[in-house]
Structures are given as C-alpha cells and as structure tokens.
Amino acid sequence: MNKKLVRSILIFIFLFVIELLLNSISLSDLFLLRNITSFYLFILVVILIFYFYFRVLDKPIRRYLISIGLLLALLLLFRASKYIAFEESNFIARHLWYFYYLPFIFTPALTILASLSVGEDGLFKRKGIIISLLTFSSILFLIVLTNDLHQWVFKFNENFINWDNQYSYGIFYFVLIGILAIEMIIIIIILIKKCSLSAAKKMMWLPLLPILYSIVWMVFYALGVFDKIPFSLGELPEVFGFSIAGFFLGSIEIGLIPTNKYSKEFFLKSNISAFITDNKGNIHIKGNEALELSNSDLIFDKTKVLSQDIRLHKNKINGGFVYWSDDIKELNQINEKLEDTIESMMDENELIRLENDLAFKDAFITAKEKTYDNITLATKKELDHIKALAEKTKDDLSLYDQNIKYISILTVYIKRYANLMLEANDSISLDEFYLSLNEIVLYLQKSNIKAFLNKNYENRNIDSKNIMGAFQKFGDILNDSLEFFKGLMITINDTGLRLVLEGIESSFAKEIEDNTSYIDISFGGDLWYLLWI
C-alpha cells in the first residue's frame, strides 16, 4: 500500500471522527452548535460533488455520482429544514422527515447502476434493469411518504401527539431496512465481479469497508443495540452519506473508476507530445515534447494533417480540449518495409529464402536497414498470426469484426516495438516503456477485452537490451494468448513486468490458479534471445 493511499484513508477516517465529535456537541440549545453537524456535512458533500465533476472521466458514471451527491445534499437540506424552519409545524416537519428516505432509497439504486457502468463502453444499456430499479425505488418512497395514511413504516399516538419522540416501527420499516441492506450486498457482489482481475482484487476491501460498516450499523440500529452502548457510532444520515462517499472514493483509489487525478504529473514526467487547453484555447498542461502551435492551428474537428509525417489530434474533455501529435515519419518507413515483408510472406519459398539470407546481410546494409530487418525478424510470429487471421476472414466473413480487432492489436504491438527499436540507444526510460504498453492496452479495451495497466516504479533509464527483451517476451505471450484470454492486468515495477491473464492457463505461466495465469517478466536474464545474441 503506497503512502498516498494511506494518507487518503487516514483523511477519510479523520473527517468521519470529526463528524462523530461534532454530533456529540450538536445537542446544545445554541443554534450554531445544534446544527453544526449539518453545516459540516453539507460542506463535505459540496466538495465531493465538485470532486466528481472535475475528476471522473467517464461521463455516464460522472452523472450518476453527481446525482448521488445531490441526493446527499438534499438529505442534509431536508434535515436542516425540519429542525430550523419548520420545527413548529408538525405536518411539514413530519413530511420533511419522510423525505429523508428519498436519498436513502434512491442512492443505493443509483449506486448499483453506477457500479454496473464501471468498465462498460458508455452508459449501462440494459434499460429493463434501470427502469425496474427506479420504479421499485419510487414505490418504496411513496409508501414512506404516505405513512400518515397507513402507518406501515412509523406508528404514532392518536392525532400524532408528540410524534417526534413517541413512535414505533411498523413492519414495512424493517422490510425497507432489509431491502437497503440487500442493495448494499448487491453493490458488494458487483464490485467483486468488477475486481475479478488481478492486483485490484487485493485492494477490493477498501471500497467494501464503508458499505459493510453501513450494513452492520443498520442491523444494530434495527435491533436497538445503540440504546445499550455508551457511545455513538453515528446517526443514520451521516453513516449513510459517509458509506456511499467512501465506496466511490475507494473505488477511485483502486482504479475501478478512471479519473484525471495524476494527469498533470503524467504530462510533466513523460515525453508525450500533448497538451490540454481550456475552452478558450489557453494551454494549462503541456508535455515536454508538445508542438509549438498558433491558435489558428487549434481550430479543427478531430484530426488535422500538419505535414506528411505529422498528425495533430483533438478530443473534447471536461472544461476544454486535449491535443496530441503523432510523428509518423519513421512509422511510414516501417510500414513500407512491412508491406514488402508481408508481400514476400505470401510466397513460402521466398520467406524461407529471406530467413536464410538475413544472417549474411549485416556486412552489406546500413545500421538503419539492419534495424528494420531486426524488427521484421522479431515480429515474425505476429506477422504470421496476422496473415493467418486474414486467411480465416477470407474463408468466413462472419469472423471479420473479431479478427480485424485482433489484427489491430497485433499491428499496434509491431508499431510500438518498431518505435522502441528506433529509440533504443544505450538505454530506454521506464516511462517510454509504459507509453508503449499503454497504447496496446487501449486497443485491447477498444476490442472489448478487459485490460488494465498499473505503474509501480520510479522512472529511470534501463539498458535497451533488457527493455526490448521484456517487450518481446510480452509480445510472444500476447500473440500466443490473444484469441483466448478474457482479461489482462499489467503491472510495471522496478525489476520487470507482472502479467495476470484471466481465462487461460498459459504455457508461459509459472503460477496458475482458478484458470488465471500469473507471469513475471524481468528486465534482464535470458530474455533477449533473438536480436542481441
């Protein structure tokens, strides 16, 4: 567990302890002290809403989270109004109390929908589940809101005399508490499913703890346990709000919900050729290799051709735009070389001749040409795989959509391998290595394959042979497993890579458990078995 995560956990616990302490003094008759807990929590909720708005990248999930934050704010407003503005009006105050259950009932439902949307391509699209959840929640709330007519939830004295202090729970109250607890358990189950990959699984307890605490609290509350202990474990609105906030903040910390938390650090430390502007075109974050452009250069839709070898791309983000450029000069050269190689591969005899001839070329070609030939040799397995996929697609067009995704993934691996080879001098930085793997992960995600990439290293330069050896070994594993595994987690550390392949027992794995393969690739050793011997 890193220091930043420990600090975040301690801050969250500290804020909750402050709430418990404030709650113990809020019984004073002084107006400020009597309502200090509500003021404190309202400030925290507003901060939470703005945090979701500016940090969460996925728009559908961000909408759910902001809606949940607004419901928590409504809960505090209802409670404050009950005790501040309408304390003398029994009918209004009682119904404001009933309105507490609007957030209580709808927040777990929205949390389920937000959890289901994690890892989806856009908004969770099963309308039947969405409509059923919201309809069911609406019915529950209407039963609470009309309690004066049937008293199924709360039972009062005749004519509601002393209703705020003398009441008992109806059968539907316990049904409602049970439903809320079940919804919390459903959230836990969804989280376990979303964490079925890799290292995130080890941190799954973090977002679960607040939910488990709220479940235990509701059970204790319903059983009257709090009447028998001398200290407070929180009031229902506070416990409810902190558990929901803790669940989502924990999910963000372990990487289930993508945010821009480390965007600035990434831009400043990497050699990425990109920058971020506000809506007016003012640059706020800029990578070390970003192009110097005029304002007129920034006015275009998605992609702009600056030259034969430079492409500028643009994408809308919250509050502005992100721009990045691709220098494809050497890639164009590589593509020409690859096209020649692929054409020659169509003739098996020519391929054999090429393999036999490559050993004698070093004395007759330039260093750059040797690099291109090395790239061709190193990626031969991937090129063969691409050829085989193309042949399968010709024979069966129903395989087109799936095979074109596999071909794209293998192609981007070849491109990134070539880029690293061209960059390779004596050493390559871990950040450059991270960017190469990150593009492959993005293509896996676009192909509906669950894929994640974690950083657990301090950036430094590593011998080129060791970096390229690890990347080539990764390519062999990717090529061998591409059509079979269900998910991939990659962790880069100071000594190498840790791969977790879900849904396959890989021949490369030294450790296999529950149809999941765990593979370690070190920077060094005997990995550089093709090009550098």
TrEMBL record:
GO terms for molecular function: kinase activity. Signal peptide: none annotated. Residues 328-355 form a coiled coil. It comes from the Bacteria. The chain crosses the membrane at residues 9-33, 39-57, 64-85, 97-116, 128-147, 167-192, 204-224, 239-259. Keywords: Coiled coil, Kinase, Membrane, Transferase, Transmembrane, Transmembrane helix. This is Histidine kinase-like protein.
